[in-house]
Amino acid sequence: MSSYFEKALSNFLSEFTTTGSIKHLVDRGMTLDQIIENMDYPASREKVSRQMYEYMLEAKILVEDLDMSKYNIVEYKSRNELSHIVSKYGKERLYFMCPFGYLVKNNKEELLRLTSCLTKREADYILGIPWILNKTYHCADLRMLEIASELMDKRDLKLELYLNRELF
Q1: Rounded distance, CA 112 to CA 26, Å?
Q2: Among 35, 111, 142, 157, who pairs with 151 as Cys (CB 3.0-4.6 Å)?
Q3: Residue whose C-alpha is closest to residue 160's, from 82, 73, 37
Q4: 6: pLDDT strictly greater than 80
């Protein structure tokens, strides 16, 4: 019986320390592969990926569903205009609609073609997120701003940008 409790305690401590490490490393901007490399405790890729995704949802880096009654689509035509919009409103109020989940499930070749114009770190970031839904919304932080700009400039893919009009 004591072996059962020791194992349960060990699993709990491992889960607790792993989750804390993952949150810290996500906050530092690391990709999935970088997080796995920097873990103090061994954890499977699937476990790290799942915990990374859950934390990104918790921290509102990713949002699975936007209340469209609170958001407007913001039009932009250039990298400079996009950058100006993000600096004016802030990442807390802006989300890019990311179609990567659809591509992961239905057209992996197209996903790889799109991400091939990105830096290795940017491509690793996109490819390391477990895009569970066909479309997921990513906050307009500096990394995603750069990724969206590159996709627009080099692949003619313009990610829809949504502004929360209630956070004034």
Answers
A1: 23
A2: 157
A3: 73
A4: no
Instruction: Give the global pTM.
Output: 0.87
Q: What is the per-residue pLDDT for 159?
A: 97
C-alpha 94/C-alpha 141 separation (Å) is: 9
Residue 132 to residue 129: CA distance in whole angstroms: 9
Residue type, 12: F
Type of residue at 67: D
Token look-up 């059962």 returns: 4
For residue 74, what are the β-bridge partners?
A: 161
Q: Is the pLDDT of residue 11 over 90?
A: no
Element (H, E) at 63: strand 62-63
The angle, 0 to 180 degrees and rounded to 10, between the axes of the packed helices 2-27 and 45-58 is 60
Q: Is 50 in contact with 23 (CB distance < 8 Å)? A: no
